[in-house]
Amino acid sequence: MQERSFHIITFGCQMNVHDSQWLGRALTARGFAPAPLEEAQVVLVNTCSVREKPELKVMSTLGRIRQATGNSPRVLVGVTGCVAQQLGDALFRQRQVRLVAGSDGISGAPAAIERLLADPALRLSLLDFTAHYEEREAGSPLPRAATGHVNIMQGCDNFCAYCIVPFTRGRQKSRATAAVLDDCRALLAAGTRDITLLGQNVNAFGRDASGDGTAFHELLRRVDALPGLARLHYVTPHPKDMDAEDVAAFGELEHLCPRLHLPLQAGSDAVLKRMGRKYDAARFLDLVARLRAARPDVALSTDLIVGFPGESEDDFQATLDMMRECDFMASFSFCYSDRPGTRASRFLDKIPPEVQQDRLVRLQALQDELGTRWLAARVGQEAEILLEGRSPRDAAPDGSGESWQGRDIYGALVHVNLPPGDHLGRTVCVRIAHAHRHSLVGSLPGNAE
Ligand code: SAH
Ligand code: SF4
Ligand code: F3S
To answer: Atom 4 (ligand 2): residue with closest C-alpha?
Structure first.
């Protein structure tokens, strides 16, 4: 075991990935070094409870940690994030677990780890929700990366019938605009060119007791104007909260990319009503039409749930119809799963797993078709690629270059052969030569692919 070393295992959404990156930087600034699981003194599991059997996943991960560390009492295990918030002190039944830190408590985890290392008899749980967005210690310098994420809020107030997030992340708390802008400036100073603003319901930014009154579209405008920014994105918006200004931003802001992840969840009005989504199919389609009017090339992706309690085959067909009508370039799709404490978990007309699974397969086949068609339509077009790193693909067979990968303004992954050199964060203009199932291949003008 290596003294003052850490290893972080992450499940869940981009907000969790971002929290884990911050935890790593905070520990590094305190003199810890990253290490493989087998050698780490501090092992953290940052957990997600949004779907299916998250507790089992955490328990099996703790088993894996026990095995890798020889169940040594000198190894400090911490469970953080949404399952930690949900299960709380019950996690201490696992002998190695000495830290349990929930969604807000995670900001205190680095200091808690220092205390736990100093006092081997101690266990600590950080489970309280804070009234305001808790600013976090700065951590070690940001890594050099083309893309970066900035949290703009914590929690969610929507209580969609199926969703555990309002319970695990607490009420919505917006961050101060100045703090968001500072984080964006720090990323840009470190060479990042592409920023994604993160939150569970970003368009409701500022509309809570913790916010400073700045509306989301105003925040977008201010981030968009920061010198050095090439691309701006956000995730996740709620269709009911996309106001006229948020739509207009797609036609007005120079760096806001024409790609929006807009969760539909279901196509049937009856299901949407029971989900508590507060929009119907017609309103969603109207929003899509207004987005396309503001920015005709906007590409849409979505989240979909199949087998919500009471979903009939006709309801499911309505979801497929909406997918075609909205022409989603991509989607994340899930079988409905009961989450403790949610309204839907008490609904009686549950859909059998085999019916759910059958619907999921059919939905994903349609998405494959739509996604493949969207990618194929790009062949022959010119595209501006922001380079994110070397790609695992083989470079030119004659060895004349290196294969790099990056994304176009729609977020599609594009591979391109480039002359040897460091291209991280550069943009290149390519012509799309081929479409694969999930990515594109581009070539520099004048180069045959
Ligand atoms: N705040 C975002 C993301 C929430 S969680 C939003 O409102 O869209 C990410 C996705 O997980 C959701 O969009 C939903 O599609 C899915 N999800 C959430 N709870 C679920 C459940 N109980 N069963 C299946 N999928 C679920
Ligand atoms: Fe969950 Fe709904 Fe909030 Fe999204 S908006 S996090 S689905 S409650
Ligand atoms: Fe999962 Fe929590 Fe994110 S439940 S999806 S890690 S907000």
So the answer is: 200
